[in-house]
Write a sequence for this structure.
């Protein structure tokens, strides 16, 4: 795989990961003021978007590592290790905080009944 093609894939992974994660946040915040039916719909949508975002983050980290290896970037370069560390922290926080919170919210909407 050429370096330029991998760089384009890396940029696309970044757009998907960050863009879809932003949609996840916006949708989950919008559910706070919504009705039960719209909240259920938004949370199901968020669950699907989260899986796409997860693939984007994994692809971003792996393609970044591969770009560093192919481009012979030093592991001692502050920008390289810093971006790798921030990506891993963001992914870890997303998987340990955001995903369990999402699952709890979905469980609450399934058990709730509409006020009538």
């Amino acid at each position: 795989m050429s370096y330029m093609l991998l760089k384009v894939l890396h940029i696309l992974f970044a757009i998907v990961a960050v863009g879809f994660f932003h949609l996840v946040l916006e949708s989950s915040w919008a559910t706070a003021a919504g009705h039960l039916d719209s909240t259920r719909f938004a949370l199901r949508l968020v669950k699907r978007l989260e899986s796409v975002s997860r693939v984007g983050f994994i692809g971003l980290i792996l393609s970044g590592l591969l770009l560093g290896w192919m481009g012979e970037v030093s592991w001692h370069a502050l920008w390289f290790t810093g971006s790798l560390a921030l990506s891993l922290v963001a992914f870890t926080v997303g998987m340990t905080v955001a995903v369990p919170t999402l699952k709890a919210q979905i469980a609450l909407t399934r058990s709730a009944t509409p006020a009538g």
DSSP finds three helices and no strands in the chain. The mean pLDDT is 79. Residues 26 and 46 are 9 Å apart (CA to CA).
